[in-house]
Amino acid sequence: MTLTEAFTAQLEALDKRALLRRRRRIDSPCGPLVEVAGRRLLAFCSNDYLGLAADPALVVRAQEGARLYGVGSGGSQFISGFYAPHQELEERLARFVGLPRALCFSSGYLANIGIITALLGPSDAVFSDELNHASLIDGVRLCGADRHVYPHLDMAALAAALASCRSARKLVASDAVFSMDGDLAPLPVLLALCEQYDAMLLVDDAHGFGVLGPQGRGSLAHFALAAPRILTMGTLGKAAGVAGAFVAGAEEVVEWLLQRARTYIFETGSPALLAHTTLAAIDLIESGDARRLHLQALIAQLRAGLQGLRWTLSESTTPIQPLIIGSNEDALALGTALLEQGLWVPVIRPPTVAPGTARLRISLSAAHTPSQVDRLIAALQRLG
């Protein structure tokens, strides 16, 4: 069998197991209504939780940024410099989340890998929730530290693993809001365990930043937590509606990341126009209580409307509302039936989730209307 034949056989095997992924091309801005292959679909698939991705004010701000700074950065920020909006954004983000310093990365994936591999080495230990995002998982694998993966939200198992660890440097890494389940990590308990066993705590707040906490300041603010041992990573392409990511924490730790995070040092810098735009997005997040109240009302509306169906709606108070279907084939069939009715809800299958837990990942946005949510509820009730 040639190499191409081998890949063809592997792709066919994925297809037979209903695991082949396919992209859909969009010909319109990100929003509840999108144009896909000439069809207008009502979408419940984006992480644009506050509806800022196509906000007219941010579009104008991006155009201004392009006029001021162009569209490219020219190279690594250590080689060709970083721009005033980059510095201003890092200072603004640190103040916004209430931590001494922040450092921006080109994406959340690069941020998590860079953070973990810069902080830990073979003589250290890392503790990771089994349902953490792939970027945390890959960072844990790459850092070379002694790995401890604890069952999802099992604080007793984490405590036992920390108690038996003899490594001098320890890091606990956890999503704040889990991306496929929508549930929250018990961050106060995690911090207490880190205090007890002298570990650092890395919180991936990709799905909490902009949504949770006073003024959308994130999951740490939601729980009113602060400690020098905490690092928080937030993405800027979800609730903020733009692109990129940041890490915030103690001054010395962030300076170490600046010096040692390979995914920052060797990455072409993010265009200044994005930082310029994100500064305006943070202002919209801070003043966005009405958006968040509307979003919470939509979440309550959806959950009430889907009660009593034969599928399991996960316990979630966040915009991520997973409807657990079971088999890959059944989940795909349901997703296809919704698509035929003009509703785009993504079907999530292994290896992203555990076998037997294929699901529809319903994502709500403040840009959705109650009537749009009612349309989805009615369709699922008919199909269920």
Tags for this model:
384 residues; alpha/beta; Aspartate Aminotransferase, domain 1; Aspartate Aminotransferase, domain 2; 2 domains; seven-stranded mixed sheet; four-stranded antiparallel sheet; 15 helices; 43% helix
Major sheet: size, sense and barrel closure?
7 strands, mixed
Helix/strand/pairing category: alpha/beta
For the secondary structure, the number of strands is: 14
Could you tell me the radius of gyration in angstroms? Answer: 21 Å
What count of helical segments does DSSP give? Answer: 15
- Average pLDDT works out at 97
Uncertain spans, ≥5 residues at pLDDT below 50?
none
Number of domains: 2
* Terminus-to-terminus distance: 45 Å
Under CATH, the homologous superfamily of the largest domain reads Type I PLP-dependent aspartate aminotransferase-like (Major domain)
> Spatial order of the strands in the main sheet?
3-9-8-7-6-4-5
Q: Beta-strand level of the residues, as a percent range?
A: 15-25%
User: What percent of the residues sit in helical stretches (DSSP H or I)?
Assistant: 40-55%
At CATH level 2, the architecture of the largest domain is 3-Layer(aba) Sandwich
